[in-house]
Design goal:
The protein has about 300 residues and is mainly alpha-helical. Helices cover about 35% and strands about 5% of the residues. Interacts with DDI2; probably also interacts with DDI1.
Amino acid sequence: MGCDGGTIPKRHELVKGPKKVEKVDKDAELVAQWNYCTLSQEILRRPIVACELGRLYNKDAVIEFLLDKSSEKALGKAASHIKSIKNVTELRLSDNPAWEGDKGNTKGDKHDDLQRARFICPVVGLEMNGRHRFCFLRCCGCVFSERALKEIKAEVCHTCGTAFQEDDVIVLNGSKEDVEVLKSRMEERRLRAKLEKKTKKSKAAESVSKSDVSEETPGPSKMKTGKPEETNLDTREKKTNSAPKSAAHGITSGKAAKRSIADSEESEAYKSLFTTHSSAKRSKEESAHWVTHTSYCF
């Protein structure tokens, strides 16, 4: 049954014990967290953004994920809490002058120093390689080491000068406990934003309803005193009384004008200008035929 030829099997070859738990290399894990995008697993390149849980992403990868939310993406679980581009913050990172990158490794025979990082803290000068805790401000996106925030305590950002609160400080690539705390803060912040939106909508609806009511009800200057029927009757009586008076006044004025011209003591030349003068009257012979007779035909 095998083992011929003088081979002697050992115990670990015959007896299968429990499998050993594979340990993750800490250096490799730090390199993956701080140098590669959490969503696309590509090298981080600017513009670099961070979510509310402190994970690093390429902005292009986040935009592609938001545009194509297919269930086939296995890596989408790492960014399931990102609902819109407003849930991420673009980071303002300070370059490390000692980092050369791939410039000096043209032949491929140069040793890559994993401890050397691309970015540093602008206040203390610590490298952002995972050995030190780093955090960013959600209000402005500036990145600092946690040591800098503790040593230089201020309520204003060290680089841009914007005011911030404790809720705006988010730890980058923190531990499980840090992620749980940041997750609870994120949920509280989103609930608060929803409540604010509801209150704004209710206030807007109330203001619109009040404006409609004010337009329907007339003011005190537009209100009429007394009964409307009595006012209508008074106006009608005034109109009927004024109409015959005006007609009689017109008739009497016309007669008085005629009498005044005929009985006036003016000269005959002045009286001949009017049609009531005797010179304006024509005889039957001078008048036209009855068919074409008009008062102005001569």
